[in-house]
Design a protein that fits this description.
The protein is of the alpha+beta class. The protein has 2 domains: 90 residues, Roll (PH-domain like), CATH 2.30.29.30; 34 residues, no CATH class. It is built from 3 helices and 6 strands, in the order ββββββααα. The chain has a 3-stranded antiparallel sheet with strand order 1-2-3. The longest helix has 23 residues.
Amino acid sequence: MMGSGDDTQHNGSFIITDKRVAFYKKGLFTEIYKGISISNISSLEQNSILSHRTIAIHTSGEDITFKTSESKQAFNQAYEIIEELRNNLTSAKNTQPANLVSNSSNEVFDKIKMLGDLMEKGLITNEEFQEQKKRLLDSI
């Protein structure tokens, strides 16, 4: 660990999943985890000076910078993966769910469950879920 306060730096692992970007370090006496949901990332910056590379991740509430001396290829791949995940999430959010009105109550409940899954995955908002759920329940 180096620095203090907002300038504290840790050595650890940079992890990218389909839902979040995270930093993880497990030490002898401490464990550090800092994750940011892909959906909360407002912008990314990359910088490369000699063999030192950084990816700065910006959200509405905080900025985190990951530094590495990994190969330029691995660094660029990590940046591209995060951007692709952000773009896929944005595209999915902009796709409105189809009108799921049906007369069969079993189909209605199945569709409400499907909408709940979409909301859990961040593909539709809570408002969109509530609107479609109301339409479906009104159709019974």
